[in-house]
Amino acid sequence: MLEIYNSLTRFKETFKPLHEGHVGMYVCGPTVYGDAHLGHARPAITFDLLYRYLMYLGYKVRYVRNITDVGHLEHDADEGEDKIAKKARLEQLEPMEVVQFYTNRYHRDMSALNVLPPSIEPHASGHIIEQIAFVQKILDKGYAYVSNGSVYMDVEKYAKDYPYGKLSGRNLNDIVTETRELDGQDEKKHSYDFALWKKAAPEHIMHWPSPWSEGFPGWHMECSTMGTKYLGEKFDIHGGGLDLIFPHHEAEIAQSCAALGHESVHYWMHNNMITIAGKKMGKSYNNFITLEQFFSGNHPLLSKPFGPMVIRFFILQAHYRSTVDFSSEALEAAEKGLQRMQEAYARLLKLQAGKETTVEVAGLRQRCQEAMDDDLNSPFVIAALFDSARAINTVWDGKGTISEADLAELREIWKTFAIDILGLRLEEQGAGDDKMKAFNGAIDLLLGIRLQAKQNKDWQTSDKIRNELTALGFQVKDTKDGFEWSI
Q1: Confidence of residue 9 (pLDDT cuts 50, 70, 90)
Q2: Fewer CB near the last or first residue (10 Å), C or N of the chain?
Q3: Do the Cβ atoms of 197 and 210 come closer than 8 Å?
Q4: Whether pLDDT at 433 is above 50
Q5: Fold of domain 276-421
Q6: How far apart are CA 164 and CA 329, in angstroms?
């Protein structure tokens, strides 16, 4: 039986892949019935950070992130109306139209956040045959039963042979106390038994033939099936949000043990939640803000639009296992921090090397490496880079020097950790937006006119340009080589 870990507290000391040089990683992806929100961005960025770091360490990574497009029900993992089918009914669309529309938008948002695409992105609806076969294995082993055309996990029988609740730390008594009474519970032997296959009601749009009924797989079944199909019966890492530990991931463990006789996952990793005023952000609480609203600023809780890199930086400023409380003020602070990093990196690329190094740059690579080895401690990496930004600014201001070798090393460290691993686009103010390039060019042209006015001692024109730009929210700084500006 595999040992379960809830986090990789020290990568070099703890992480031991099952196959040398290769890592199999499965992450629970979105249920595509609406636009992605900030709560979706956090696991995507967290496991993108892990994916990037594993590749930096030299591993060949097969990264599987699923698309849930069937079996995710409205009230509970077993009961209610399928969320995608409900959306299709309300908008008079085919369910797969809903799926494709929101999958396309999810991919667009992930690209904007600089989240790398996975190696494989399987859909639950494309693996119905495999899920039926997986359910049959559990029935054959005697850990499930058929009731009125539906198939349920016999949790009590399973728990006699395997430690149910191992991941979440719950026991059956706790689960009995916490289980709500829902319609259709009379089909089950016990309230905590969960669906492996559900018989479809006549009005249910999405259903497939099976040995037991015309129906659809339970929500938990897709990940057990697709994880083992693409990564093998035993694989390295399974990730997702903290809210998935129970019941989703606990049910996955039970399904794998029941069907295969052993656990499939070696390491479990979970990111914590994003909250608003201390309450989890999510569609079920109707307190979410979509990524599109962040990018446009079109939401009453937002003071202004925030770019994708601000969102990414905001999330990376906190450790992935800590709670992050959203506020527009916190995003404004993150925006200023990102601007400081962008300015420091722009200066770093323009610095001229001297004969010797008189600023403190030693040990930066080791600090960043140790922070990443310590459970992906991205806030410490950011702090180390900010410390080195002081040295960059000191040299830029002519108050220190840096040797050619140290300058090359510093540039390489920033590229490796800030760009390649943290995934920040530091060179792009507008992520390639032509309008932003035109805007930047116009400001540079205006400040060039101001510089020429200063050289001609036309102080009235020079001051007028500076004062009016300042009134509009620009910060203009004169330098020995000309000028700098920011908003």
Answers
A1: low
A2: N
A3: yes
A4: no
A5: Isoleucyl-tRNA Synthetase; Domain 1 (1.10.730)
A6: 43
